[in-house]
Amino acid sequence: MTSLRRILVWISGASAGLGAALAATIPFDNPELVDLSRRGGTPGTHHVAVDLADPESWPVVDKDFRQRIEAGDPELVVFIHNAGTLTPLGPADRVDTSQYTRNVLLNSAAAQILGHSFLSAVSGRDCEQHLIMLSSGAARQAHEGESSYGAGKAAIDQWVRTVGLEQQRREHGCRVISVSPGSLDTGMQAELRATSAEQVPVSSRFRELEAQGLLAKPESVARAIWSLLDRDLDNGTVLHIRDIT
Ligand SMILES: NC(=O)c1ccc[n+]([C@@H]2O[C@H](COP(=O)([O-])OP(=O)(O)OC[C@H]3O[C@@H](n4cnc5c(N)ncnc54)[C@H](OP(=O)(O)O)[C@@H]3O)[C@@H](O)[C@H]2O)c1
């Protein structure tokens, strides 16, 4: 997938975990690659420092989409919305309210608002356009202790199905895909394993997966995610990475 085309790519949460692996395995020459995260620091990225659980950050991202697209006149634009959080893990009636609010704002609201901003920024342009959202098995399987996380991922899936139908009608629509990456060896997984089975019963399964060496490496999953750009998939497809590897 090497190319000398003018390419603009945003990855939310490219400072760590899967997002950093996506940045490290980007399959293009000389892309303008933007990391939307709090920490930044990933080589090869322009860091836009944003706390995406804070609604005040969303117009900052909106402006970044518009300004770079306008200035770069790109032939290919990609947004991978990867940032997410499990915090706070635990039953909905026991967790901290401000942390729970941040979880809902990041996992549910930011995904839709930033997705909307991206679609609006690329609307009417004749360049190739891709939006990929990171989902989770928790969107379909109810995991006690992960209510706002699972609800946010389920919302992402339905948003993608709906927007995919809308974009199909456009002459130069954006291809919108949701992908569950499977169980990955990242900080998010470590947080889950550090949680008691009382708070999150499914945490035991992830401790076993890690002990058996069954957590996937972020780089190999990142390469599979990049391969989605070239695959013949219906707009609005919701898939699990194991379906294509
Ligand atoms: N790991 C798994 O097994 C697994 C399984 C299913 C789905 N997923 C999904 O895959 C994606 C990546 O997960 P991961 O395992 O790589 O997670 P991770 O290691 O915890 O990394 C999360 C990334 O999201 C960013 N982020 C978190 N809160 C943010 C905020 N408030 N504002 C801006 N950025 C924020 C972090 O950046 P900063 O801290 O620098 O802001 C970091 O770069 C997530 O959407 C997750 O739900 C992961």
TrEMBL record:
UniProt entry tagged with the keyword Oxidoreductase: yes
Pfam families named among the record's database cross-references: adh_short
Lineage top rank: taxon: Bacteria
Cellular compartment(s): Cytoplasm
One function term, GO molecular function aspect: sepiapterin reductase (NADP+) activity
Natural source organism: Kribbella solani
The name this protein goes by in its record: NADP-dependent 3-hydroxy acid dehydrogenase YdfG
GO biological process: tetrahydrobiopterin biosynthetic process
Cited PROSITE patterns: ADH_SHORT
Keyword Cytoplasm applies: yes
Signal peptide limits: 1-23
Family: Belongs to the short-chain dehydrogenases/reductases (SDR) family.
Keywords, alphabetical: Cytoplasm, NADP, Oxidoreductase, Signal
GO cellular component terms, A-Z: cytoplasm
InterPro entries documented for this protein: Biopterin_syn/organic_redct, NAD(P)-bd_dom_sf, Sc_DH/Rdtase_CS, SDR_fam
